[in-house]
Design brief:
The structure holds 2 protein chains of 2 kinds.
Chain A: H1 2-14, H2 17-26, H3 28-45, H4 47-50, H5 80-115, H6 119-133, H7 136-146, H8 151-161, H9 164-178, H10 181-188, H11 193-229, H12 240-249, H13 258-278, H14 286-289
Helix pairs in contact in A: 3-5, 3-13, 5-6, 5-8, 5-9, 5-11, 5-13, 6-9, 7-8, 8-11, 9-11, 11-12, 11-13, 12-13
Chain B: H1 4-38, H2 43-48, H3 57-67, H4 73-85, H5 99-134, H6 139-152, H7 156-170, H8 186-224, H9 227-234, H10 239-277, H11 282-291, H12 295-323, H13 325-329
The chains are: A mainly alpha, B mainly alpha.
Chain lengths: ~290, ~325
């Protein structure tokens, strides 16, 4: 069976440790980001297995950190450490899904506006400019306040309002790409617009889109944290931002219980940082930072 | 005759901008009108708060007629626009005050928080950013960039809470809550307000600085690679002249537009900072309105904030035209 042998050879070569090390050394910053995210996703998936307590089980409130409760307990006597582990699920899911929505909208708007000239571009970019001018957080607050507080509504609100900068970045990249010679040749060969858009333009903006997606997750997570901090979060799916909200409104902050509000805050910080780090190339990190 | 040409172009540029902003304002007003009417649930509940659910049906109908919610949508829209023209933003549900009066009282303090932060943060970012940009790869650059990147990825309220905990709770250097201690006049009052606002403004400025710093450092690196810098070096110009006259001059337009866009970011930041410091500005107003579901206040606050943002962006556009003469020349501006 030569085929299988070929396959296994391919596998072993792509999993070659030496090669892997080379790639890590080529961009250590990027791999730090990836490593952090792998750990975080692992925590989120295995939360029920590694959490020492059920995060919803109540007990003695306002306990200080101890061996049994690593980060103490909150106002309801729930174990803060377990809550922290479980909250990673909500925070990551909201960040990812909201970013997917915003990227899909932003990329389609940017592609269309960059590729077609004339009124389509005017209309789309005009719309983007309008959305850029609206203060994001206040509008999100209003929408989230009207809608019932659920994770899905927050995902929708963030995703539907956070696509403008993606649209702009993608548009300017597409403007560059569409002027390239090979696009003109493809057009001269008689290929349709949709073929060129999918096959060539999209392929050449891929890099920008990946980077922008990662940054979109980061900013979606920050937006979610702000909304939750204001008390607009989903009470059934506690996120890190919401943990800080409870610590802030229920005496954790006033009583200087730093073990209550600091860990979730640091988790947000680390996660957002990891998503930003992924977009960085070590030699010219300046290039992509501008996408933020 | 020579003077006339750029002038007419500038007018064209400005009128084009005015037209765009007019459309933007129209869209935002319309959005604000439709939000309570499009959202799930009864618009009556949306406008009167949760209390409307337990009210008598006949009374509700009466109220509905009073608010004009029983009339066709386009009539409602016209009434809405005409009341806005009279600066009538309706009544607060909980505080039984005019929304306009509530906002007038609060907006001053929020602006007092935002404006100095925008200016200080922008200046800090410009100085640090150019410093790091010119000496890219140095210890200083690495240290500052990683520090500001860390700050950029931390939520503003967390940073504010840590600062409050250190400087107000533990060290007791700065007061908490309120804009002034009261019962003071003249210079001592101003100093007192400055003392109260020091920490929030410092935090907001730092937040403003993070993003702007990254952008400036970045664009300086890009400009340093341009051909005209190479030529300037070849001419034998000193580093100082190149940096100040050629590079910074080219960074300025981008700096201005970033500052304007940041204004929105800053307003959002100020809202959160106010809540952490319990300052009575727009942020706490919106926060209280969110908690008590006081929809007219939320929407009024949203409108007012948006108008300030639009004004700031318009000012930036005018400045941009001056800072970068090429923009007014370009046929199809961004």
């Amino acid at each position: 069976m030569p085929n299988v042998e070929n396959m296994s050879e391919k596998w072993s070569s792509s999993l070659d440790i030496g090669k892997f090390r080379k790639r890590v050394c080529a961009s250590p910053i990027k791999f730090t980001g990836i490593a952090i995210l792998v750990v975080l996703v692992f925590i989120a998936i295995t939360a029920p297995l590694i959490a020492p307590h059920d995060p919803e089980k109540t007990g003695i409130p306002y306990q200080s950190p101890s061996a049994d409760h690593l980060l103490g307990t909150n106002d309801l006597g729930q174990d803060i450490f377990s809550e922290l582990l479980y909250a990673s699920r909500t925070s990551l899911v909201v960040g990812f899904l909201a970013a997917i929505i915003s990227i899909v909208i932003g990329v389609s708007v940017g592609l269309m506006a960059g590729y077609y000239k004339g009124w389509i571009r005017e209309l789309l970019m005009g719309m983007t400019d309008v959305f850029l001018l609206i203060p994001g957080l206040p509008l999100m607050i209003i929408l989230a306040a009207y809608l019932s507080p659920s994770m899905w509504n927050i995902i929708l609100v963030i995703g539907l309002l956070w696509w403008c900068s993606t649209a702009r970045v993608v548009q300017s990249r597409v403007l560059q790409v569409r002027e390239m010679q090979f696009i003109e040749s493809t057009r001269a060969l008689g290929y349709s617009d949709s073929y060129i858009l999918h096959k060539h333009v999209l392929a050449n903006t891929k890099e920008v889109i990946y980077a922008k997606f990662s940054l979109a997750v980061a900013s979606a997570m920050l937006a979610e944290a702000s909304l939750s901090f204001l008390g607009l979060g989903d009470p059934l799916n506690i996120s890190w931002g919401e943990m800080i909200h409870f610590a802030f409104t229920r005496g954790g902050f006033a009583n200087d219980m730093w073990w209550w509000y600091l860990p979730p805050g640091l988790m947000i910080c680390i996660t957002v940082l990891a998503f930003v780090l992924i977009t960085m190339e070590s030699r010219k990190d300046s290039r992509l930072v501008e996408l933020i | 005759m020579k003077m006339l040409r750029p002038n007419s172009k500038t007018t064209l540029y400005i009128s084009n901008k005015v037209f765009r902003y007019a459309i933007t304002i129209f869209i935002i007003l319309t959005l604000n009108f439709f939000i309570p009417r499009m959202m799930p649930g009864d618009p009556m509940t949306n406008m009167l708060g949760e209390g409307a659910r337990w009210m008598d049906k006949a009374y509700l109908d009466e109220l509905r007629a009073e608010y004009g919610l029983d009339r066709p949508l386009h009539e409602q829209y016209l009434t809405y626009l005409s009341s806005l023209a009279r600066f009538d933003l309706g009544y607060s549900i909980n505080k039984s005050l005019k929304v306009k009066d509530l906002l007038m009282e609060r907006i001053f303090w929020t602006l007092l928080l935002v404006f100095p932060s925008v200016i200080i943060g922008g200046a800090v970012a410009l100085i640090l950013g150019s410093f790091a940009g010119f000496r890219q790869g140095s210890m200083m650059d690495r240290l500052m960039t990683s520090l500001l990147l860390l700050l950029y990825s931390s939520p503003s309220f967390l940073f504010a809470m840590i600062m409050v905990s250190i400087f107000s709770f533990h060290l007791g250097w700065f007061p908490l809550g309120n804009f002034a201690s009261g019962k003071m006049h003249g210079a001592s009052y101003v100093l007192d307000v400055a003392w109260h606002l020091f920490l929030p403004i410092a935090i907001l400025s730092l937040f403003e600085a993070t993003y702007t710093y990254l952008v400036i450092r970045n664009s300086i690196t890009q400009i340093l690679g341009e051909y005209f810098i190479f030529v300037a070096r070849a001419k034998g110009l000193s580093n100082r002249v190149i940096e100040l006259q050629h590079v910074i001059r080219n960074v300025l337009p981008q700096f201005i537009s970033i500052m304007a866009l940041n204004f929105g970011f800053m307003v959002s930041g100020a809202l959160i900072i106010e809540i952490v410091f319990s300052l009575n500005g727009m942020g706490t107003l919106i926060y209280d309105a969110v908690i008590s579901r006081d929809y007219p206040v939320m929407q009024g606050a949203f409108l007012v904030l948006t108008f300030f943002l639009i004004a700031a962006n318009f000012a930036a556009d005018l400045l941009y035209g001056i800072a970068d003469p090429r923009i007014a020349d370009a046929k199809d501006s961004i």
